[in-house]
């Protein structure tokens, strides 16, 4: 708690100092954007804090739905959900803590204007970003494991008892999984929407600073500042990739692989009621395709990365054109 209060005070003080840079009319254009890197990282502290307060109740309600879902899952598949995340989560959290300590210190050495006081205020933000990524990955992986268990149980029953299998049970269970995904999306769309927005902005600004640094005639290409830009880009891009990749893998397991299993069934060997349930199952998947949507209208997935890259490229062209029109000393 004391560390959290100190980090809040330090972050507020850092933001105040950084905003004062904009009062300097002689500051070069690139330095304005360079300063934005620190402002974006520090502002994430307050943005994510507000988003967490708004999302806390819904996330708690979402987590409580897993109890009911586990009972339903066990009644259909006759197995328990085997997640075994303790060791994995411990390793990821330890890596997050280590990185949260090392990352700001590296930036102190690489970026000349990144002071030790700023590094102290950013440590909590780095920790928070890591924890959010671990939470997102664990929830997506939990859903992946349940969908995989549903598929394995359905395949096993089709192999042993193809004439007595109740496809309806698996269809209803899949709909329950879809409801869990939708609840997770509604519960976390604010905090993870703000989180992805912060990551997007930091990577975009850092990427432009890196590109401008490489094209600048006054800057030495291989310098500490170049390393600082790369560290900022790699860390935040890695967290952004985790959001997109986990969401993509979850949808593949819940939707695409289940559809493949159903389409590979030899429907003509099933009873009429079972055939009807298979078609209803496929219809339910097509009508209720579960997706993780952030901030109301932003679907997260691997296609998000290509959309981001194309948007960044457009902004870079505009900013570089604007920079070319400025006087040489700007």
Automatic annotation (TrEMBL):
Any single GO CC term annotated in Swiss-Prot or TrEMBL for this entry: plasma membrane
Where is this chain primarily localised? membrane
Alphabetically ordered keywords of this record: Cell membrane, Membrane, Receptor, Transducer, Transmembrane, Transmembrane helix
Q: Can you say where in the cell this protein is located?
A: Cell membrane
**Mode of membrane association:** Multi-pass membrane protein
Q: Spell out where the chain crosses the membrane.
A: 32-54, 89-112, 124-144, 190-214, 226-246
Please list the GO biological process terms of this entry: sensory perception of taste; signal transduction
* Function field: Gustatory receptor which mediates acceptance or avoidance behavior, depending on its substrates.
The family line of this record is: Belongs to the insect chemoreceptor superfamily. Gustatory receptor (GR) family.
Any idea what this protein is called?
Answer: Gustatory receptor
Q: Which organism is it from?
A: Cephus cinctus
> What are the top taxonomic ranks of the organism?
Eukaryota, Metazoa, Ecdysozoa, Arthropoda, Hexapoda
Q: Which gene encodes it?
A: LOC107267047
């Amino acid at each position: 708690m004391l560390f959290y209060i100190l980090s809040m005070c330090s972050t507020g003080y850092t933001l105040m100092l950084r905003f004062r840079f904009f009062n300097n009319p002689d500051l070069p254009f690139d330095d304005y954007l360079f300063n934005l890197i620190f402002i974006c990282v520090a502002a994430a502290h307050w943005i994510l804090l507000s988003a967490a307060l708004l999302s806390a109740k819904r996330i708690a309600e979402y987590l409580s739905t897993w109890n009911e879902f586990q009972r339903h899952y066990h009644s259909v598949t006759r197995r328990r959900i085997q997640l075994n995340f303790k060791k994995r989560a411990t390793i990821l959290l330890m890596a997050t803590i280590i990185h949260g300590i090392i990352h700001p210190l590296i930036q102190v050495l690489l970026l000349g204007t990144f002071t030790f006081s700023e590094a102290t205020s950013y440590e909590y933000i780095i920790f928070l970003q890591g924890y959010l990524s671990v939470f997102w990955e664990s929830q997506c992986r939990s859903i992946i494991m349940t969908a995989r268990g549903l598929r394995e149980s359905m395949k096993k029953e089709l192999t042993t008892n193809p004439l007595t299998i109740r496809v309806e049970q698996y269809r209803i269970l899949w709909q329950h999984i879809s409801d869990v995904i939708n609840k997770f999306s509604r519960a976390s769309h604010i905090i993870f929407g703000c989180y992805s927005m912060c990551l997007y902005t930091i990577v975009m600004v850092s990427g432009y600073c890196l590109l401008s640094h490489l094209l600048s005639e006054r800057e030495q290409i291989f310098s500490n500042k170049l390393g600082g830009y790369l560290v900022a880009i790699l860390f935040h891009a890695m967290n952004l990739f985790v959001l997109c990749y986990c969401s993509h893998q979850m949808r593949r397991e819940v939707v695409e692989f289940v559809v493949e299993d159903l389409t590979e069934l030899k429907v003509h060997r099933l009873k009429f009621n079972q055939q009807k349930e298979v078609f209803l199952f496929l219809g339910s998947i097509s009508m209720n395709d579960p997706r993780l949507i952030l901030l109301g209208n932003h679907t997260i997935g691997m296609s998000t990365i290509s959309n981001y890259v194309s948007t960044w490229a457009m902004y870079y062209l505009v900013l570089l054109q604007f920079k070319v029109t400025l006087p040489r000393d700007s």
